[in-house]
Design brief:
Elements lengths: L1 H38 L12 H57 L5 H32 L6 E5 H11 L1 H6 L4 E3 L6 E5 H18 L4 E7 L2 E9 L29 H11 L3 E7 L2 E9 L4
Parallel strand pairs: 2-4
Antiparallel strand pairs: 1-3, 4-5, 5-7, 6-7
Helix pairs in contact: 2-3, 3-7, 4-6, 6-7
């Protein structure tokens, strides 16, 4: 009887040691996986186990990690090819468009009938629209490929927004759009002025192109500075706000004369200066918001 008790006690001790060993190995797996996440390393899981199932687990984890790494590398390569494609398209389109506009100017200097002048004006209008689309391509390709070197300075966001809206008065009047800007006390941010100005200009350009009525512009502060542009749209059912910042998303493709890059450019610029973007659709009113870090105090 004593022998049986001794044997059972010995087996229990061995079992407990085995359990502790397994826990240590599982902890080791978790530690290595956590290290991959926090330190962005690509090391495989390295274990020496005498448990068959845990060995298979480690092997399968490493296989999954290898597949994930292959997909990541393929994604980087594909993104690089896409950036090069956008840059090449924007360059290739600019050259013939410049030639087209040059010939239009030469034709305009000649003797034309009233009908010919009218047709030339129509051709120039479409050439200008094409030029605007190409500039979107060019700006987006530039932002994708340029190093994000920021020139941080103290900016009075309230003044910059007001001045930008005033500079765009002619564009609003051409579309018969009224702009309502609620007065706010000065709000300051520490950011890159050129990028911030381009964000505001692209917000204005987006409203001029797509608004179906008067525009409401608001500047407010929460834990961040928030720029909000709100305007009615003609066909709200065609807009998917979850995709509105995706590149090349154009909503109602049948009607839209856009590259679908305007809001993507805003998002890209905002992210470069530590901000973020969001969109909300209520009824026929769409609201585009850009949040920026406030000035450090």
């Amino acid at each position: 009887m004593v022998f049986v008790i001794v044997v059972l006690s010995f087996l229990i001790i061995l079992f407990l040691v085995y359990i502790v060993f397994l826990q240590l190995q599982l902890r080791n797996i978790n530690r290595q996986l956590a290290k991959r996440l926090t330190e962005n390393t690509r090391q495989p899981i390295n274990l020496e186990l005498f448990n068959k199932e845990l060995n298979f687990l480690a092997i399968n984890i490493n296989r999954c990690l290898k597949v994930e790494e292959t997909l990541r590398i393929d994604g980087i390569r594909e993104e690089k090819r896409f950036k090069e494609l956008i840059a090449n398209i924007s360059h290739d389109l600019r050259t013939p468009l410049t030639a087209i506009k040059g010939y239009q100017q030469l034709i305009g200097k000649g003797t034309l009938s009233a009908e010919q002048k009218n047709k030339l004006l129509i051709a120039e209008k479409y050439a200008d629209e094409l030029g605007g689309l190409i500039e979107h391509f060019f700006e987006y390709s530039y932002l994708l490929n340029v190093e994000a070197e920021l020139n941080i300075e103290r900016i009075n966001l309230t003044n910059l927004l007001t001045e930008s809206l005033a500079a765009a008065v002619n564009k609003f009047e051409e579309k018969n759009l009224a702009v309502h800007l609620e007065e706010t006390p000065p709000i300051f941010v520490d950011t890159d002025k050129k990028r911030l100005l381009r964000i505001i200009q692209n917000l204005i350009r987006n409203c001029v192109q797509h608004s179906n009525g008067d525009i409401e512009v608001n500047l407010m502060t929460t834990d961040k500075a928030v720029i909000s542009f709100k305007n009615p749209v003609e066909n709200p059912s065609a807009i998917d706000v979850t995709r509105i910042f995706d590149r090349f998303y154009t909503g109602d493709i049948a009607r839209n004369k856009s590259t679908g890059l305007g809001l993507s450019i805003i998002k890209l610029l905002a992210e470069q200066i530590g901000g973020n973007t969001s969109a909300e659709l209520q009824g026929n009113m769409i609201s585009i918001k850009v949040e920026l870090p406030l000035k450090d105090t």
